[in-house]
């Protein structure tokens, strides 16, 4: 299930979140590059026997994870710092529920387009966002639950720079709201670069809320 070249996320006991890449997989070990912290992009050090959570995406954007530990550190002259993590048995790898993603309130313009089911495209706004899905406010319900459509939204990435995110998303829930609807979508196709930007954006928003003492994610 885990392959060389996979992009993965790590979370340590200090709640630091890092992005890294798998460089090798053996029967007992998973080798990774030194992780870069999501919020700052700075590389951070892992200690021997440190416990970490390991998360990766497979099968149309489904998130899987497991707990593991650092069993070896290695300073490769060509690749830099590398870590060997204990590889679990396949039955120990579990799918992570979408609600475990960091989700932040977020007002973004979003364009909604048909994928397989025909309807008139429309624009609206988002209500919240995570690396796994998005909540959209709409005047209509264009598709049925479990159907897919295409979403495009503009994500601010700092210093006045924006990034256009195109995703394929499945409608998982509809909540009536007076004369409109809240449409909850789960991403089923999003490229790695876009998912990284969304995840970083959400964690930065979480950190800002934490500093103000208004963290809605705990």
TrEMBL record:
Annotated protein name in UniProt: Type IV pilus assembly PilZ
MF terms (GO), sorted A to Z: cyclic-di-GMP binding
InterPro entries xref list: PilZ_domain, T3SS_YcgR_PilZN
Species in which this protein is naturally found: Exiguobacterium sibiricum (strain DSM 17290 / CCUG 55495 / CIP 109462 / JCM 13490 / 255-15)
SUPFAM superfamilies: PilZ domain-like
Residues in PilZ domain copies: 97-204
Domain Type III secretion system flagellar brake protein YcgR PilZN, residue spans: 13-79
Domain of life: Bacteria
Pfam family, one: PilZ
